[in-house]
Specification:
It contains 11 helices and 20 strands. It has 384 residues and is an alpha+beta fold. A hairpin with a 6-residue loop joins strand 1 and strand 2 (35-36). The protein starts with 14 loop residues before the first helix and ends with a strand. Residues 179-381 form the Alpha-ketoglutarate-dependent dioxygenase AlkB-like domain.
Length: 384
């Protein structure tokens, strides 16, 4: 757990936690305007540079190898982490923009579940509601006259509704409400395909769900090939979409943790205790067959990814993840702790200029605004 550490406890921190602390975003508040503190990034593996060097002269850094595959781009591995593969720049700009749009508009739609379900139930069209400046308000607090300007959230007995701002504020009531834009910023995950039950850390086949979109399935099958056992084809059955928002507050997590801790079976909540721009060190151990890879797509702002060993005491390797990069984790790599201690949102390090060009049309301004301060990760799994 990450909640009881103080400055003088550094010697008691695990090697993984020390690395998280090293790369985490801290601000220098000694001046009138706060600035990010300088971080030593010299030890961070840069697979973009590795690819450029490999294409130019065939040279690779010590500990890195090129994996033969049928893909159109080189696939790199780490000798010290069998089963881990990195495909830099695997997604075209067009593909990146497509999956960013899907992640914000389609993937959080019911029956897919999100972190908001525990408090608000199913929320439909959150991204559109945010773009239109709508407010989510308790049903009991709204007038039951003609329902003008009110969008009912999906459900037989909805407790919350999206309303026009003036509809909520004109009545003068002290209703519980939250803006759609705030909810969008507090969106942390959505689940596709077979739904994951966070309280039991397992897949619940009884929960309503839809198949993963065919295009995403086909993409995952193609990308997973270098990490698959010989003669087998990856079968995408579930996916978790993670949303990282820089500077996000912890209020959503506190509310969610309260709900989770009230359950008969207490879940592992370590990951929920970190800010929105971090994913704490963890294992993806819910699937039955670890020989099948997790296929992980990175979108929007650049991030630092930590890949540790089989215990938190193993010193992790740090590497950059850029929009369009693909990570595969199979076999022994599935037993390695990993996490994301930081995303970069400043213009010099976010590296989203190509996305800015792709989303330059006025109708795409909301997508661009989101991308400038956020990162999206889609990780696709074979459950059985």
């Amino acid at each position: 757990m990450y909640t009881s550490e103080t400055a003088n406890e550094d010697s008691e921190r695990t090697a993984f936690r020390k690395a998280e602390k090293k790369y985490k975003l801290y601000y220098d508040t000694s001046k009138k305007r706060k600035h990010p503190k300088t971080v030593d990034l010299s030890d961070v593996i840069d697979f973009k540079a590795v690819l450029e060097s490999y294409n130019q002269n065939g040279q690779l850094p010590e500990g890195v190898f090129a994996q033969g595959s049928d893909l159109y781009l080189p696939v790199f591995g780490l000798k010290s982490r069998p089963g881990f593969y990195f495909i830099p720049g695997a997604l075209t700009i067009k593909e990146q923009c497509r999956w960013i749009r899907e992640s914000l508009t389609s993937f959080p739609q019911p029956p897919n579940r999100t972190n908001h379900n525990a408090i608000y139930g199913h929320i439909r069209d959150l991204f559109v509601a945010s773009k239109e400046g709508k407010i989510l308000t308790e049903v009991e607090s709204l007038s039951k006259s003609n329902g003008s300007g009110v969008d009912v959230i999906e459900g037989n007995d909805p407790k919350w509704k999206f309303s026009e701002e003036q509809c909520v504020t004109s009545g003068g009531s002290s209703s519980k409400s939250v803006s759609a834009s705030v909810l969008l910023r507090k969106l942390r995950w959505s689940t596709l395909g077979l739904q994951f039950d966070w309280s039991k850390r397992s897949y619940n086949i009884s929960l309503p769900h839809q198949k993963i979109p065919d295009a995403l399935c086909q993409l995952a099958k193609t990308l997973a090939a270098p990490a698959m056992p010989p003669g087998e084809v990856f079968q995408p059955e579930a996916a978790i979409v993670n949303y990282f928002s820089s500077g996000a507050r912890r209020s959503w997590a506190i509310s969610l943790i309260t709900v989770l801790l009230s359950l008969p079976i207490k879940p592992n909540i370590d990951v929920f205790l970190l800010p929105g721009d971090m994913l704490g060190g963890h294992l993806d151990d819910m699937e039955k067959d670890w020989s099948k890879p997790i296929v992980s797509l990175s979108l929007a702002c650049k991030a630092i990814f930590l890949l540790g060993g089989k215990t938190r005491e193993d010193t992790p390797l740090a590497m950059f993840l850029r929009s369009g990069d693909i990570v595969l984790m199979a076999g022994e790599a599935r037993e390695c702790f990993h996490g994301v201690p930081r995303i970069f949102t400043d213009g010099g390090h976010a590296e989203i200029s190509d996305l800015e060009s792709c989303f330059s049309h006025e109708d795409d301004s909301s997508f661009l605004e989101y991308c400038r301060t956020s990162r999206i990760n889609i990780n696709i799994r074979q459950v059985d």
